[in-house]
Specification:
The chain is mainly α. 71% of the residues lie in helices and 2% in strands. The chain is built from 10 helices and 2 strands. It has helices at 13-37, 41-65, 70-97, 104-126, 138-150, 157-171, 190-207, 211-224, 229-233, 237-246; strands spanning 133-134, 176-177. The chain has a two-stranded antiparallel sheet. The protein is globular.
Length: 247
Amino acid sequence: MRRVDRRVKNIPIKTIIPNMITSGSVFCGVSSLILTAHERFIPAALLICFAVFFDVMDGRVARSLGGSSAFGEELDSLADAISFGVAPAFLIYNAYVGVESGIWGPLTASFFALCGVLRLARFNVTHVPAGPFQGLPIPAGGLALASIVIARLPITPLVAMSAMCFVGALMVSSVPYCNAKKLKKSNVSRAKLYGLMTFIALCFFILREKAFLAMAVMYIISGLVKFDGAEWIMLHAEDERSAHEKD
């Protein structure tokens, strides 16, 4: 009888590090669910924001180390499903909807989570790395719902359920959204980048806890009006030549 070689191959550290960062997103998502169950809604929403940070960093670290792998891509999708699909839906349901909504509350929460999972599955098989995102990215969708809680908006259960349905529908739509992954130090307009960073800082200074919601709404609208922020901030061919001449 033929023996199967079950020896575990050594996994390079450049692959382990990005996966460890992705695991931080899972930790944030599960912790958010637990805090939501205990009605600690603001900390639960903030953990979803922290999960966005881990989601951004794992890809950047993987690309910089050359440690991208099929395993990492699958792990990232599973982490996103928890942190930006299930956790935000559970948060909004508990914070604004509740059992008084009857069957409609669980249905709308499940609809949002399902749209997020479908969005991830479509992304894995159809996304072109250099092109815009097709549909609202699930981290942006999860952050949009979490930002409602952080802003402490006094919305009704009907508005909360409508928000979940609207954001969920955008995730599975064909609306194009800007892809910041194509931005590099060599192709970015520094003047526009610094202007954008100043604008974000002012949003947090003026709007405080409502800043996350304002940015989420602006990003959602940018796709609906077909404004590609990544293309806007990138240097064009003539700008790149002049930048190289200055250097």
